Amino acid sequence: MASDSGAISGTVVTRFAPSPTGFLHIGGARTALFNWLFARHYGGKALLRIEDTDHKRSSQEAIDAILDGLDWLGLDYDEEPVFQSKRADRHAEVANMLLEHGHAYRCYATTEDLEAMRAAQREAKQPLRYDGRWRDRDPSEAPEGVPFTVRIKTPTEGGTAIKDLVQGKVSVSNAEIDDYIILRADGTPTYMLAAVVDDHDMGCTHIIRGDDHLNNAFRQLPIYRAMDAIEGGWSDPTYAHIPLIHGSDGAKLSKRHGALGVEAYRDEMGILPEALFNYLLRLGWGHGDKEEITRDEAISLFTLDGVGKSPSRFDIKKLENLNGHYLREADDARLAALIAPKLDGKVDIGLLTQAMPVLKTRAKNIGDLVAGAAFLTAKRPLALTEKAASLLTDEARAILSRVSGQLKSENDWTTEALEATTKQLSEELELGLGKLAQPMRAALTGTTTSPGIFDVLVLLGREESLARIDAQAIS
């Protein structure tokens, strides 16, 4: 990896520029995070641009989901979002300046012309690229009434090199870069032009994005350099192209690996924002052996020096384990408020908060908390799972009757007192404590898994606990 040490001068300005053709997926979220952290670390500005020029594929729903996902992750921006679709006039203005000063030209090649050109290139086993047929022709040769595109004049000799803060020095032969379209025949700008103009006008100093955009850097630099020659002040940005995320098997990340929208991690998988923040940070970036990193620590520690060149592997189990850590660290009232709407029946938020310390000890996601808390709102007669019902044999129901009698004599309804009373009964019956706890759990919760049985008794309270046990007991 290259180092960004000593490479920072002036105010750092980064941008995250998603296309709203889908939700904020995990790769985009990590790119947003790295841009945000880099700006925050150097005391700069983090900006957001919505690249919504593809009207057919862009949607307000996707825009809302992207903004919601960024907000949920805690990524705030220093200015209002820039919507690229509102800047088409400015993009066309720059295209016309390039045209006027000889850095771009009108291309009158028809669709049929270009198809024939590509067919010939395939036949000759040549790279498919525009052959510059209108680059040096006089516009007077243009057929009358034929629409034209505007193409940038890229260098044809030598090479271009960039010093990438992640990839190091990367060079490309200029012969590999064709004269691409910057303004379509209908007058609308292409991505290449719009991105450069917007990055310049937003004052972006550092372009941090996926390494699938590395080739775009070499295609975009001719616009910067041509505009700098025309009016000055269009200096090259500093690039940092970060490796993509792969699945745990090393293949390109897809839905089968967990490549979902951020909202799915929140709503369906029950991941906390601080856990996803931490996990995304550690995908391709590291600081020694440190795994659990707070937001403030991340801002303090983050530089591009810690980003590796190799793709990182997404591991859903590691994310869940990290999420379990943050669940245990989370405020109990906050967790209670998160799971309360997901529980069936009316729930006492105070009771739910009281239950959190025992519910979250083994939970890995919000769903685990919901499942663990379900017994608190269950109504009698309890619906039993198949496993729970199998535990309630006639022998077990007779044991429950003895348990009920013992507990009814208990006046100190605390975990310590209830445990002592139940242990005393197990000794009298010459049974292991588990022989009592298993049918008790089935009767109290309707399941075979729950928090500690004495915690369950305390949380349900004396009256409800005894009523549930008695409903399954036989004399």
Overall outline: elongated
Number of strands: 12
Structural class: mainly alpha
Count of DSSP helices? Answer: 19
Topology:
Layout: E1 13-16, H1 26-41, E2 45-50, H2 60-73, E3 82-83, H3 88-100, E4 104-107, H4 111-123, E5 149-152, E6 159-164, E7 168-173, E8 181-183, H5 191-201, E9 206-210, H6 214-231, E10 238-242, E11 245-246, H7 262-267, H8 273-282, H9 295-301, E12 312-313, H10 316-329, H11 332-339, H12 349-359, H13 366-377, H14 386-391, H15 394-408, H16 415-428, H17 433-445, H18 453-460, H19 462-472
Parallel strand pairs: 1-2, 2-3, 9-10, 11-12
Antiparallel strand pairs: 4-5, 5-8, 6-7
Please provide a brief summary of the model.
This protein has 19 helices and 12 strands.
